[in-house]
Each structure stands twice: as C-alpha cells, then as structure tokens.
Design a protein that fits this description.
CATH class: Mainly Beta
Number of domains: 1
Number of helices: 1
Helix content: under 10%
Structural class: mainly beta
CATH architecture: Sandwich
Radius of gyration: 13 Å
Number of strands: 10
Largest sheet: 5 strands, antiparallel
Strand order of the largest sheet: 1-10-3-8-5
Length: 112
Amino acid sequence: MPSYTSTQLNGTGSLAPNLTKGTTYTFSINNPINSAYFTLETVRNTQGIYDVNSPKNISGSFANIFNLVQSDYIASVALVSGSNSFTFVPSTNVVGTTLYMKGTGDITLTIS
C-alpha cells in the first residue's frame, strides 16, 4: 500500500486508495512534532456538505486509537509525538476518489 509525505497530506490533502469492505487497514503515522492531527474526510458535494448521496466512507470500525472524533463521513484524531498507529475496517467499499486524507504538521503516513 502507499506512503504519503507531509506535503501530500497538508492543505487539501491526498485522495485515499480504494479500500475493500471487511479488510483491515493499518494507518501508521509518524509525527515528529508535539501536536498534529490526521483526518479522513469524504468528498463534500457541490454545496460543501454531506447529503443522502454522499458515500458513508467512514462507516466501519476503528481500533487502537484514542481521541477519535467520528461520523459516517469524517474521522479526525489528535496525534501524539512519535509513532502513531490505528486500524480501520470499512463496512462498505470505499472508492479512493471519494475520500481525502489530510494532516497537519510534518507527519508522514503509510497504509498497510
């Protein structure tokens, strides 16, 4: 699976890879600074909101994660300094072009 640099994750972020329903994905994030955030966010519609046609990309289960704020459309976590890792098992197939991955600071991400 892919790796991402802070440049790819900052600002508007990067589109995610396709994620298969029922598969466990490990998100390994290195955070060299004191405070940073990582977010998975469904692409918003043309009005800038999620509606009944928006895919529920974040529905599923997360494990080994603290400070998670989650809905069916977005999940965000505050990262500690150093190595961070969590798993996500989506309950639907996620088309990568409908999910952004965003981060603050100088974090790097590897998905396996």
